[in-house]
Design goal:
This protein has one domain. The two termini are 32 Å apart. The protein is mainly alpha-helical and 127 residues long. It is globular and about 55 Å long. Keywords: Membrane, Transmembrane, Transmembrane helix.
């Protein structure tokens, strides 16, 4: 595994997640009372799409074994997020673990989407 890929994408993913969290937090803070449900839905959808894009970007930047490299990258990223959440957050272990498992699942789904699109492209080119 290339250490440069690992460090660049780990730092980039962390910065992307921080920016995404900031945007979602702003949406939640300025959500008006009658439209609170819509703002919550918008925030959750934005988080899911952002995580998919981060997972897709990590898979597109991997050199050789895209699934293996991104798997290790996402496990490390989610582990750091879990440790940070447990250290500085006020949530209990179970809810933090479930939330971070959800992050990992959506990140890996972004890798799956990339692999499906990439497979279709290579089949179209070879035909």
């Amino acid at each position: 595994m290339k250490i440069k890929y690992f460090i660049n994408h780990l730092v980039g993913s962390f910065i992307g997640l921080c920016a995404l969290t900031g945007i979602v937090k702003i949406i939640f803070m300025y959500g008006v009372q009658p439209y609170e449900g819509s703002f919550i839905t918008l925030g959750v959808l934005m988080m899911i799409v952002g995580l998919l894009l981060i997972g897709y970007a990590n898979a597109s930047g991997a050199a050789v074994n895209k699934t293996k490299q991104t798997f290790y990258l996402h496990i490390t990223l989610v582990t750091f997020l879990l440790i940070t959440d447990l250290t500085f957050g006020s949530t209990n272990l179970l809810s933090a673990f479930i939330r971070n498992f959800g992050y990992w699942a959506v990140l890996q789904f972004g890798v799956y989407i990339f692999m499906q699109i990439n497979t279709q492209r290579t089949q179209l080119i070879s035909n």
